[in-house]
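Hi L.,

You mentioned the student needs an example of a multi-chain input paired with its predicted structure. This one should do, with 667 residues in total across all chains.
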Amino acid sequence: MRAYAEKNVIPITFILLCVLFPFVISDQYLIRVLMEVFFFAAMGNAWNIIGGYGKQTSWASATFFSVGAYTSILLYTKCGEISPWISVIMGMGIAVVLAVIIGWPCFRMRGVFFSIATIACATIFRQLLIYFETFTGGSLGLSFMIRKGNSLWKLHFDSDIPFYFVALIWMLITAAIIAYIERNKLGYYLRAICKDQDAAESLGIKSSKVKLQAFIISCMIMSFTGTLYVFKTGFADPNTLASHDMSIRIGIVAILGGMGTIWGPTIGALITVPLLELSNAYLQNFGGGGAGWALYGLLIVLMVLFKPNGIISILDDAKNLVKRKTYGWERKQHESER
Amino acid sequence: MGRLYQKISFAPSCFTFYLIVTEYLKIADFAATQKEDKMAQVIINGMLAGGVYALIAVGLTMIHGVMKIVNFSQGDFLAIGMYLTYAAYKFMPQGSAPYWLMIPVGAAMYLIGCIIFSTSIKKVIGKGDSNYILLTIGLSYLIQNIIQLVFGPDFKSIDVSDSLRYGSINIGEAFLSIPRVIAFMAAAVFVVFVNWFLSKTDIGRAMRATSENQVIAESLGIRTGRVYVVAFSLGTVFAGIAGLLLSPMFLPFPKIGSQFSTIAMSAMVLGGLGNIRGAMVGGLVIGLVESFTSTFISVNLSQAAINSALMLVLIFKPYGLFGKKVRAS
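Structure written out for the whole complex:
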């Protein structure tokens, strides 16, 4: 137990800080930003399964996010306030069907063909959302009243703090799912495929089937997050939820943090989401606007050029530096041999 | 035996052709009665738009063919071209055609391409798909928002004369809008120029050699670094020129590039990556699909139709219409 705690000292302190945060700081804005961080971290975790471990750079995340969001908002507003905990299951079911429909053709392609095919699928989905106006509300979207008393069953809370904990718990669950997959057969298969697909297939791994499995799990998590997100905001529209920007933000959370690591997406979300939120809030009137997004683009470019393995590699470097300072050079060499 | 087989195999293709022709006649008939003979107009509009798409896709293909990088920010280079035209047009006499700006805008785009290549793109060549995808997406955000910082988020209008903006030539029942015709012709000239450039000049031959095999090209004394710079900058020049050609028809705004990015990528993938002729055909096909859906079904669904066409082609031919299979990793 103690060895475990010593090994994972950074994640444990992070979780403790997150739990204590709303009791210490009462600023509603910061709590809302952190909630956004948790949602994006959860979606980054979902993306990480297929994009990080399998190296299949998918840009259709927003599709599955909005599947969850739209399923539950439609069931809530048009079918008599069905609880999100029921509609989340239906949303996940629809996400699985859609994942098979999108994944079956896309996983026969490789590399950049796959990325472009997912972008095409996401565009088709967004356009259909806008086209079927009577059903989905068109480009204006759908909305409903939030904050109507405290009820966990209907996910209504009078303040943001209970929702903060819902988001935090969901993010930790997704991180646990990632950790489980990493140690599981699926994780090893995915890593084998991303190293060399032809070699993996010659060893008997059915690559399209494995990729599709991982994709389905990833899509279910995204759909679940979509449901939670829409009950936090009370609002769903295709131009933000299903947009290409949203897919890219989800992917970049994982890529910037560090692909194929358990805590990478969380770190990525902790950096990118506040960067965008705060710079959009404070740099709004600088020039013609858009300074926040320009900074975001600059961050991406700099990270790719100088730290292509993500922010988590900076932390690893720092850890190694500390070890070298305390134990000397030999200890580090010994560890790397092991 | 062989003759018989030929005859048998010829029959179904004849039948399909017959079916296609009858279907086409039905649609044309429908169009003649319902939509006041829009068929010719729709085809012409599609071809004219497709010519410009082909120009953007050719630039993208040039970059991909030589350095195996898909530039996700190609549309934003188009936006730079549009805004450069907008900024430079203020110094032109009132009401003159913006096409005179082609040389300064092209030169500026070449310079921008050189700078962007040598500061960033150079470092991700040959380092895997996700690196360049991420880098070019980052660049696209950077370009879009720098444009917004400088010019503001609203629509700009380039004050060309009304005779250019709204002018048209009538051929029978169909109207040919003048800026579209000029854009199509200029794009066609550029595409022909690319073919000449790649087959007849030294640097063009060096480019083709590099795209076949970089190591062997280097061993033959080709400076691949220089070839990369030229290829990338020419790709950006084509995007910028496309922006200039489109500027009388579109009102530039900072995020205008993203729609052209997806269209150009679809055109390129439709034709097969790294294949100039494929990109041209892909651009024309996409122009036609777009104009057919936006006329006969709904404008809102044109993007969806383009992407469905792309998905259909990719399902049956995973490497595009004219692409060759390559081994992963």
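You could point out the following to them. Chain A touches chain B through 49 residues (CB under 8 Å). Chain A has a mean pLDDT of 85.

Best wishes,
N.
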